[in-house]
Amino acid sequence: MNALRRHRALSRIWASDPGLRGWFTTVNHTDLGRMFLAVAVFFFVVGGILAMLIRAQLASPRSAFLGPDHYNQVLTMHGTIMMFLFAIPLFEGLAVYLLPKMLGTRDLAFPRLTAYGFWCYVFGGAMMVFSLLAGVAPDSGWFMYPPLSSTIGAPGINPDFWLIGITFVEISAISAAVEITVTVLRYRAPGMSLSKMPIFAWYALVTAVMILTGFPPLILGSILLELERAFGMPFFQVAAGGDALLWQHLFWLFGHPEVYIIFLPAAGAISTILPVMARTTLMGYGWIVAAAVSLGVLSFGLWVHHMFTTGIPHMGLAFFSAASTLVAVPTAVQIFAWIGTLSKGRPSLHLPMLWLLAFFATFVIGGLTGVMVAIVPFDWQAHDTYFIVAHLHYVLIGGFVFPMLAALYYWMPHFTGRKTYFKLGNTAFWLVFFGFHGTFLLLHWAGLLGMRRRIDTYEAGQGWEAINLIASISGFVMAIGFALVLIDVVINAVVAIRGSRDPWKAGTLEWAMPTPSAPYNFASLPHVTSRDPLYDDPELPVRLARGEGYLGDPGRARRETISVEIASGAPRYITVFPGNTALPMLMSAITGLFFLGMLLKTYWLVPISASGVIACALYWVWSLGGTTREGPLPVGRGPDLLTAAETADPPGWWGSIFLLLANGTFFGSLLFGYVFLWTIAPNWPPPNFAEPGLGIGLTALAGAALTALGTRWRPGAALLFAAPGLVALAVTGVMTLMLVPDPTAHAYDATLWVLIGYGLLHQPWHS
Amino acid sequence: MLLFLGARRQAGHVGAHVGGEARIVRLWCDYAVLVSLVVALAVGLPGWLA
């Protein structure tokens, strides 16, 4: 078979449906990655417009441009959109688009899950934007602290949009994280051991695991706060045995890792782009991987530094202050490795490199002010001032937006297959760079002069007028710069000047294919022997197109790729991917109805839509695998391989492990809340607490033993023993629940309801 | 999950027969058992301590 016939055959197998239908039925990672990126950019524009409204309001003292109510909504939605609807989805989009291409495979591990996550993001984001247009947007700040966000401080529907909408959107993040983790670990080109992985994949892996362990505390917090708002379960009300600080702990258990969830993908892009721009290889690959993993771990030990002014004990202050300064070490390891890479290479000042230099200048300042606020006495002074606003924008824009703009210009020839011809991007760069520093450098001083954050206006005569006016003018300059970037991208994408396949002379596998890429990525899969396969073998793309790699024969007429051993990258089995389907979109729409029912308090809709989601999930899983044993099949090179369905560790096994990691973190956070309230809240537990008798305890133990043994014995025993065991556990749960007094009376009873309810959600479902 | 796995086995799905799917179901069932025991501990603890 010649290369052209192979291309046509593979395109027939892998292509999305034509026309409008294709938008809704595609499960292809290239299409979905582009869609993710486009929607994330849309939300960046929305969040940017809100930022300009904020700066317009604060440009002069006693401004009446926005009233306090509207200002609170605009401020809350700016932060919410930028964090949840722009930054995280942009990473997801980039990873969804790039990872299979960089790893030398044909798609992500669970293509339908990618589509499901995307549509959850779109529907959840639409819910948030609708609230803004309807004038009922969340207005309690993007951190949603109770009592500002409880029914006492915000009786309207506004916070419900945040709590329910963000939880809906986070399904997308969890889906993408499972997807990315399993893909990086199991779906790589044969021969690509962990030590030969592209550095971006390492960062994506760490980030994905952080999402799996960082997001569940916030999902839990959102559920608890919504239960309090909707049903009066007083988790955060001191008078009823709760504590508002529990929210802050749950929020920042998510919120601080979130900073690194945003920074690490950007660092992955930097570590990929910088060596190419410097025309050398990355210095300190192993050190950088170790630094990324260390940052991921350390970031979970820092959350309390957002709460230094809440009355934390001195020992706690000392510990979290030390941990916060410690995080500068792995960050510095990366910075020095990048500087070393630049010094050993011959840097060329292309546009991606300009953005990377802007990153260095900006992020280092943000990092240093971060060390300043990690010092407790300084933090006490600067807390809740514009110093913090300036610091976080230096970190987030300098540490994420600038590297992402470098990534945009670096991979744009890959997205479009076009050569960058118009040079509007250089002008845009200088406008954004000077506009940014003009806005936020000065705001450090505003903060040190005592300007509090989140205020909708201020009095004249405090020395803040000139700073705010300059900051606002600079903000608009920055906005013009971003608009020019968008125009530049559109023009360069539309103007048909064909580019070369590897315009930057990079060594990673995403450049080993024609651009824009075919839906199957590689006509045959490469065998990888180094980190930069294209440097070792410049003829690799031609040989892959000729079908000289793995799975070069499309004769079986189905979507196939190879799964590998985690550490060594040795071929393990053939995965057969599903075809185009509207099922993920349908399922996410029904999931949306579930959340809509809760938002509008039309609770009859909730069980109906939940049943719909379960029905879709069952159909989804039922259609997996086949009913014919095929035995070992030839893959073009090396030994024949079984299909995934015929092995003991199919992709679903790995997906389950990482989904359980997120689920277990959710449960762990719930237990943390239980222990926290027990130790902090007075009158805990209340005098009339539930005491399950010995009978309930013994039944639970018997149920547990039956389930554990039943699933381990011969197959038929699962239904005979394990299913009744799970039913027994569920019955003990219901009986205990009946012993618990009114869950609206005390936070202890409310917590038991949630704990038991969580258990009940698991047992019947598993039988 | 157990009923669903049994149905897939009856329908002749290869994955349900080979063992990979049973392993997934066992993982989730083990988690359900663990959750039940921990919840039971949390509910019973105040009474036992008192």
From TrEMBL, chain A:
Keywords: Cell membrane, Copper, Electron transport, Heme, Iron, Membrane, Metal-binding, Respiratory chain, Translocase, Transmembrane, Transmembrane helix, Transport. GO terms for cellular component: plasma membrane. It holds the Pfam family COX1. Residues 8-529 form the Cytochrome oxidase subunit I profile domain. It is found in: Cell membrane. The keyword Ribonucleoprotein does not apply. GO terms for biological process: electron transport coupled proton transport; oxidative phosphorylation; respiratory electron transport chain. One of its GO terms (molecular function) is cytochrome-c oxidase activity. InterPro entries: Cyt_c_oxase-like_su1_dom, Cyt_c_oxase-like_su1_sf, Cyt_C_Oxase_1, Cyt_c_Oxase_su1_BS, Cyt_c_oxidase_su1_bac. PROSITE patterns: COX1 (PS50855), COX1_CUB (PS00077). Pathway: Energy metabolism; oxidative phosphorylation. Its main location: membrane. It is a multi-pass membrane protein. It comes from the Bacteria. The keyword Transcription does not apply. Belongs to the heme-copper respiratory oxidase family. This is cytochrome-c oxidase. It comes from Limimaricola cinnabarinus LL-001.
